[in-house]
Structure formats: structure tokens, C-alpha cells
Amino acid sequence: MRMIVLGSGAGGGFPQWNCRCPVCSLAWDGDPRVKARTQSSIAVETGDGHWTLFNASPDLRSQILATRQIQPTGLRETPISAVALTNGDVDHVDGLITLRERSPFTVYATSQISAVLDANPIFGVLARDVVSRRTVELGKPFSIDDATIEFFGAPGKVPLYLETENLTIGDTSGDTVGAVVKKDGKRLVYIPGCAFVNDDVLARVEGADLLLFDGTVFEDDEMQRAGVGVKTGRRMGHVPISGPDGSLDAFKAVKVSRKVYIHINNTNPILIEGSPERRAVEARGWEVSEDGLEIAAGEAASVHDRGSTAA
Ligand code: MLT
Ligand code: MN
Ligand code: ZN
């Protein structure tokens, strides 16, 4: 089962358009220890030459330009079979609008995330007679091409733009999900947003061939310390990497062939090659994803040729 990281950054990408936090500044200044990253999405080869996007980011057009495998294969023919959404955040749904122009594909989402699309008329550009919508229940496997997918409730929250005073962080009813993808006898687990690691998450991940997990922040109060915001990682629905109950500790006893951080915020020092934080996660057996990282579950990783734009 092949997987390509289309965008390894969190919402806003890296560097973020309006930010000169210490890590973004390295990128703006061209420091070779950091690489720019687009926003949160992966592609999985769910059938022979057919790909499912997990999340559709605001950077989807540039991600397609950079990724030969998801470029058009014929006159108005796309290898993109489907888009599966793990929440309704802007960084995960905005790219659906890029996929207008009347090519058939199917959008898979929970009822909560489907309701977000239904409530916003701009998603009507995906004409219903061309783009199918499938509402998926948690814990009920479904097929895309030759793959079997299952959504499970990941502790999370509603999208930022739907937050109210009664916000619950850690809700697992379907506003935020993780996806288990099975194909060719391999299992991939993709969880780009997770407020804390509970027993269900651990059970889903145990024994997987590949885990792609929420690497938004290294420290819970990293955004406050960088002076760019008042919210903690957990308040944003993202468990920090370090610290008590951070993801490094939470997954320490779990058996997974490869563990990869994804959805990495621009403030996170793991973005800096050779930084103490980067070395700390690598020492614990984690990889830090970058755009274009391609993994065949069960094999070694490679970063595919980024110069593959329709030449
Ligand atoms: C998040 O993952 O916390 C969101 O992408 C925040 C946002 O919508 O910018
Ligand atoms: Mn996000
Ligand atoms: Zn920044």
C-alpha cells in the first residue's frame, strides 16, 4: 500500500503567510535546516493507479502540481477516486473547492462533517450529479477501490469556526476522526488531529504497519511561548509531542512498524533538522514527515521527485 504525504504542515502551512516566529523566520530567511511545508493531506493508493486523498487542503492545487501520481491521466480523467475527510477544519476541506470542474469522485465523511459541507453553499460547486457524497458511520468499514477504510472517533472538537461557549474538547462522536486503511495485507492509521491519546486510539494503532500522527506542537504551550497565540495545543485539539501524556510517552509501548509525525505547526522546532527537539523524536523512533514523503507500508521511505510538474 503506497502513501504520499501531500502536505505535512498544519493549518497555515510553513512558513505561515503572516508569521515571523523563530521557526518561520528560518524559512523566510532561507536557512537550509528547514523545508517549507504545505497544509495537511495525504494520498493513499487505494486501487491500482487510483488514489484517495485523506483531507483536501487549501494547497491542493500545488500538491497536485508536485505529485505525478495524482495528475490527470487523460482528457478530463483523474486518478483521484475519492476524498475522505477527518474533520471539517479549513485546512482539511478547503481543497474540495479546487476539485470543481465536473470530474466524478466521492467524498466520504461522518454526518457531522457532511453537515458542515451542506451548511456552506460554496461546496455546492461540487455538483451532486457528478461528485457523490457518502456519509460514513464510525466503526463501520467501507470500501474505496481495493482498500477497506474505517473511521473511528479521535478525541477532538468541532472546527474553530463552529466553536461556541459550550465547546467540548476530546469529543469522540465524529467531529474529528482517525482513519484506518487496510490494503494488500497492510494497515495504515492516519490521525492528523487528536486532543489526547486514549485507549481506543492505542488499540487502533497497535500492530499497524504505518502510523501518521498529529505532530502539531512539541510543547503544549508552544504558541504562547512563541508569542503567537494564547491557546495550548490541547485546547486546539492537538496533544503535544512532549511532556506527561504527550504522544511520545503515550505511544511508547505500542508496536508500530513506522511512526511518522504529520500536521506539524509552523512554531514546532521539530521542523528544524538537527534541533534538540528533532533529535529527541528521532531518538524515540519517530520520523518527521515532509511534503512528498512516499512510503510503501512495509518498505523504506523515499521522497519522490518533486520536480515532476507536468513537464
Ligand atoms: C487545527 O488543526 O487546529 C486547525 O487547522 C486550525 C485552523 O482551522 O486553522
Ligand atoms: Mn489543522
Ligand atoms: Zn510561525
Automatic annotation (TrEMBL):
Pathway: Cofactor biosynthesis; pyrroloquinoline quinone biosynthesis. One of its GO terms (biological process) is pyrroloquinoline quinone biosynthetic process. Belongs to the PqqB family. PANTHER family: COENZYME PQQ SYNTHESIS PROTEIN B, HYDROLASE C777.06C-RELATED-RELATED. May be involved in the transport of PQQ or its precursor to the periplasm. This is Coenzyme PQQ synthesis protein B. Keywords: PQQ biosynthesis, Transport. Pfam families: Lactamase_B_2. Residues 50-264 form the Metallo-beta-lactamase domain. Coiled coil: none annotated.
